[in-house]
Design brief:
The complex is a heterodimer of chains A (114) and B (112). Chain A has 114 residues and is mainly β. Chain A contains no helices and eleven strands. Chain B is built from no helices and eleven strands. Chain B starts with a strand and ends with a strand. Classes of the chains: A mainly beta (114), B mainly beta (112).
Chain lengths: 114, 112
């Protein structure tokens, strides 16, 4: 079936390095994507989003890249800090009609080593 | 800034009991979503409401029901609880459908 998934379940980086978390989606009709950060025992925290009419969007220390040709999404975190350690989820929101639910991919656990 | 409020934060119930989870969206947000997250799993969409009407339905068991009230808060009612219902239940809200969803801290439900 249609799904949103991640290539890597875990990622370990050194403090100060850049991190890249990848996500693949299978529904070419998807037009809105969100990255969430979830710390243990907490709710998903909105990081950044991107719509399908864009291929790149930048926030504070984060950049999301969207490649619609290969249906690939990535989250880049610059100068990764220990506080960035968490599970990161990509989520897909298929708009149109009344369907605005989020479909989450499998999370990637990011561990930042001091 | 005000965030999504959920209550209670923790709930312990026995099998076959009922539970009610409450969600208070961010002020002015008119859409509420409910998600269930099992241990080590990604959140799974249950149901959503827009302007107090059910908007979309996901993998919500028939034993569960939900509604959105005139003040936009929402309640998830769960009956005949099963051990497998133990999970984190998140509520999210958005300003209009299709906009970014902001999640609450979740309610951890444990069924014994």
């Amino acid at each position: 079936g249609e799904s949103v998934g991640l290539h890597l379940p875990t990622l370990s980086v050194q403090e100060g390095d850049n991190s890249i978390i990848n996500c693949a989606y299978s529904n070419s009709a998807s037009d809105y994507f969100i990255w969430y950060k979830q710390e243990s025992g907490k709710g998903p925290q909105f990081i950044i989003d991107i719509r399908s009419n864009m291929d790149k969007r930048q926030g504070q220390r984060v950049t999301v890249l969207l490649n619609k040709t290969v249906k690939h999404l990535s989250l880049q975190i610059a100068a990764t800090q220990p506080g960035d350690s968490a599970v990161y989820f990509c989520a897909e929101n298929r708009s149109g009609g009344s369907n605005y639910k989020l479909t989450f991919g499998k999370g990637t656990l990011l561990t930042v080593n001091p | 800034a005000a965030g999504v409020i959920q209550s209670p934060r923790h709930l312990i119930k026995e099998k076959r009991e009922t539970a009610t989870l409450k969600c208070y969206p961010i002020p002015r947000h008119d859409t509420v979503y409910w998600y269930q997250q099992g241990p080590g799993q990604d959140p799974q969409f249950l149901i959503s409401f827009y302007e107090k009407m059910q908007s979309d339905k996901g993998s919500i068991p028939d034993r569960f029901s939900a509604q959105q009230f005139s003040d936009y808060h929402s309640e998830l009612n769960m009956s005949s609880l099963e051990l497998g219902d133990s999970a984190l239940y998140f509520c999210a809200s958005s300003l209009l459908r299709g906009y970014e969803q902001y999640f609450g801290p979740g309610t951890r439900l444990t069924v014994t």
